Amino acid sequence: MRLPTFSFEAIGTQWxxxxxxxxxxxxxxxxxxxxxxxxxxxAVFDLHYSRxxxxxxxxxxxxxxxxxxxxxxxxxxxxxxxKTYDVTxxxxxxxxxxxLVDLGYDAQYSLVPKTVIGKVPQxxxxxxxxxxxxxxxxxxxxxxxxxxxxxxxxxxGKILKDSLRNSKxxxxxxxxxxxxxxxxxxxxxxSPRQRLGVMKIEKKLRVGLxxxxxxxxxxxxxxxxxxxxxxxAGNRRTWQKLGNKGEIKKLTHIIxxxxxxxxxxxxxxxxxxxxxxxxDMLATALSFVSPEILRPHFLFEYLILNTDYxxxxxxxxxxxxxxx
Amino acid sequence: MELxxxxxxxxxVGSIVVVMISVAVYILVKSxxxxxxxxxxxxxxxxxxxxxxxxxxxxxxxxxxxxxHGSMMGSGGGMMAPxxxxxxxxxxxxxxxxxxxxxxxxxxxxxxxxxxxxxxxGEASSPTSKEYQAQFISGFRPSVVGKNITAISLDVVSGxxxxxxxxxxxxxxxxxxxxx
Lengths: 324, 180
Prior knowledge:
The complex is a heterodimer of chains A (324) and B (180).
Chain A: E1 6-10, E2 13-19, H1 28-49, H2 57-61, E3 66-69, H3 74-87, H4 97-102, H5 123-126, E4 127-130, E5 133-136, H6 148-164, E6 172-176, E7 179-183, E8 187-189, E9 197-199, E10 205-210, E11 217-224, E12 228-232, E13 239-242, E14 248-251, E15 266-273, H7 276-285, H8 291-294, E16 301-306, E17 311-313, E18 319-321
Antiparallel strand pairs in A: 1-2, 2-6, 3-5, 4-5, 6-7, 7-12, 8-9, 10-11, 11-18, 12-15, 13-14, 15-16, 16-17
Chain B: H1 2-31, E1 35-39, E2 44-47, E3 53-56, H2 58-61, H3 63-70, E4 87-97, E5 100-111, E6 114-122, H4 127-139, E7 147-148, E8 156-158, H5 164-179
Antiparallel strand pairs in B: 1-4, 2-3, 4-5, 5-6
Helix pairs in contact in B: 1-3
């Protein structure tokens, strides 16, 4: 694996940005400038949507009811959440925030579940969304864990695309803790033989699919090009809760809003979509609903690794799987 | 890796055998007719949970032994002589559907107790049967195993978030150390 052009830590994960490939590299000045620009943008996003900080917009909404004017970047995020909420019958919901906190997935990562877990409210009971306005009828803690990072990756991708517009370098990869956006964009160039040509990078991005049960291994290699691949697995964030009958329930950050339990039988899910926002969202949604339910509403490919190492995948998910 | 593959074999063979039997039961349930599986290899008889008698190849007949290997997962495993003869095991199942007699072929290739390949080929003739066969063939895929990450040429790794970069760094370190 090559070294990133620059990397940093933000919103609880490691970010690695790779700029240029066969099209060359960017200068260290531009690299530094982009690194700063991107981290500033992430800080703004965090201040709006992080439930892990008390000064964020969503923390404010968890304390005070009222009509909020949403920031400019909220529209696409709320739209995809509302759509997924409706398509999954409320199983994927930003209203899961308080339940996650009660289960121990809080700002301190206490991972100690409370005895009573807050009921996840219905969207229509607590929210009225009509961009740019969001009416919070009752204080509620919103959680954008399902697609927030993916959406942020897209925002960073847009910054990179705009910044590289006038540069000879045009390809890049954004890797936010294993959720990846790849852009190789074509570039129109003038060549001596041809007045107007198109420069392309033919190479696809080879993405190792990590084995959740042994992270020194991968179970296959996916190839993506000008699209995003996101993964969802609970292996690195696991804790326990005692069930009603004294049984131990394994919890991850993916929580069913009604049963307060984490999905069983699935080890990891990968999704490919044109945006990281949709790929990230559907990687979570597939924990709760079958691909057929999502298919009519979103363009995506998927690969599900079950706990018995069997695979379900869509035909269009380009991957070399290791079966030996 | 060798050991890992060895340990996984039980599970892989076991689950594929289970899938093969499920396939048989599935067809039976869908067609609600008595089915008969024609085999090309050693013939044995096993009793499925549904109480259906089917004929199966030698690889299927050893289900129990395979599973007992699988249940020993984690208790370590040494190098043993292959339990199964290398080769491709093929079984053609036929069953009566409302549209007439239909066939489906299942192939397993074993190499040193490892399933190298598992393929189902739908050979249905009626459109309804074709649809049913396509349904379970798409759900029947070979199980995967992990390969060591340093052995594969990659650009990035996708998995659970949080520490993926730490993981990438660790891999870089391992690679650097390995180069001495």
